[in-house]
Amino acid sequence: MKKPLNRRLPAPYSRMSSTDLDAQVKKFDREFIENQARPLTPELESKLRRARRKRGRPVVGGGAKRVLVTIERDLLRRADSFRKKRKLSRAQLIARGLEAVMSSGE
User: Fold this and answer.
1) Which of 14, 21, 73, 105 is deepest in the core (most CB within 10 A)?
2) pLDDT tens digits, residue range 66-94?
3) CA angle, residues 84, 62, 72, in degrees to nearest 5
């Protein structure tokens, strides 16, 4: 029985001799292979777009915008205490407050 060239290689390649393996991988030594390339199918284009998409938080509503707001220290302390009891983020508390004020018509 022939000794495997390298046990870590996938099955068909690990059973090849070094000359057979060299012949098999010679096609990868060419510099340009663009003349053999074909346009992507719509399915592959879709997958490529999804792969290239920027990662991050999912968009909720129309997206989010950062704003710098100055709040009195005591009010902020009370708001943080309130939101922690209700397991809300600071942004969620502020958004709910804004929605409540705007819906009341004040």
Assistant:
1) 21
2) 899 999 999 999 999 999 999 999 999 99
3) 40
